Predict the 3D structure of the following.
Amino acid sequence: MKNTTNGGLMAGIYIKLLPMALLHGILLCLCGGSLEAQDCVNCTRGEIEMGGTFSDTLALNTDCRHTGGAGPPYDIIRYEQTETGCVTFTTSSTCDTMLELLDQDGCLAFIQNDDCASWEAEGLQGSQNSCLSLRLCPGIYYLCLYPMAPCEGWPDISSWEYSVRVSGCIEEPEAPANDSCSSAVPLELNTPVIGTTLHASCDAVPDCADDPRSGLAWYRFMGTGSEIELNTCSPSTAIQARVAVYTGDCANLACAEVKRIGCLGDRETVLLDTTQGVEYLVAVYGAGEPDVDSWMGEFELVVSGTPEGALVLPGDFNADSRVNISDPIAVLEFLFIGGRRIPCPEADGAFSAASLAVADFNGDARLDISDGVSMLNWLFLGGPAHHLGIPSECRTFEGCSEENICPVP
C-alpha cells in the first residue's frame, strides 16, 4: 500500500537538489523502515471546519519531512464531515502543492489532487494550487499538504506560507443513477456493468463485511435457485471493491449468507446460493486499507450463474423426459387437434415463450409442421439436431416451470 507521504515520488522530485539525501531516502524505503513522524498524530498542525480557512507555513526545519527528512515538508490538518455532502478543499501557496485526503484509521491517502482545473472559479492565484471536490460520508478525515517541487526562493528561503479552505461545492456533482437502494439497477446474468462510487450517497445499511468507506452503488437481480457469482476482480475495477448482498426490501435489509474470495487489487468475488424468484439487492462500495484513488471511482461488476428455469431436453414437446417418435406426433396433435401436454406452460396452461424454445426444432422462431418433420428427419434419417443442441442433453430454459423434466440418472 502507498504510504501517506509518497516518499519515493517526492525524493525523485528532489534528485538534482539533494542527491545524498535521496540515496538515504531510497535506502530507508528499501529497508522497509517505518517513518514514525509521518502520521496524523505527530504531524497534524490544526483543525478546520466547513466554511473555514487554515493558514500556516511549510517549513523545512520544523515540519515533518518525506523519506526520513530528505524530502519536502508537509503539514496535516484535521477535518470532520458532519453529514453527507459535497465539499471542496482548496489550497493557496506560492508552492506547487499536492493535496491528499487521508483516512482516520491508517492515516493513509485514498484520493489526491495537485492540479486544480477550476482554480479561477475557486478564486485561487494560479493553477499550481490544488483543489478537490467530492461528496463525502460523515467521519473524520485528514488533509496532507506538501510541495511538488522546490518552492519559490529555495534554498535561500526555507519556509513558505499556505492556506487551506473548506467550502461547499460550487456545483453539485452528478450523483450515480443508482446511488440509493430504491434506484437499484437490474442486473442481467453473465453481462458486465460499469458503475462508480464517486459522488455516491452514504446509505445507513447493515454492514455485511468491511465498513463502507465510500458511497454505495446499488443493483438488484432475481434468484435462479442456483449459485450466483458477483465478481469485481476485473482490471477495469479501479477501487478496492467490496460487495454486500441483501435480502428483504430497502426498508428492511438483511445480509445474505455469502462466501467471499479476495483477488488482486484488494477486490473480491462473492458467491451465494439463491432461491428462485427471490429478489436480491447488491451494494458495491470502497473499503479496506486505503491506497491512493482506492475507494472512490469506477468498477466493473459481473453476475454469473445459470438463468432461472427448468432443465428440459430440447425437442421434448410432450414433456415425458425423452425425445422419440411421440414428440413429432405430439407436435402435430397440438397443431391440428389441441389438448396435448406441452413443455413449460404458463401458470394457466397456455403456450409460452419457453414452450416455443423447446419445441422450435429447426430454429425458425415459430412452431409449425416443419418442426415435426425436422424431428422425424433427425430421429430416422440423421438430419440436423435441435438448433439449441443435441436432444439427449439437458439444458436450462429460462422462464420454464420449476419442475425439471430431464431423464432421471
Observations:
- The longest strand covers residues 159-168.
- The longest helix spans residues 19-31.
- The mean pLDDT is 82.
- Residues 309-398 form a domain with the Type 1 dockerin domain fold (CATH 1.10.1330.10).
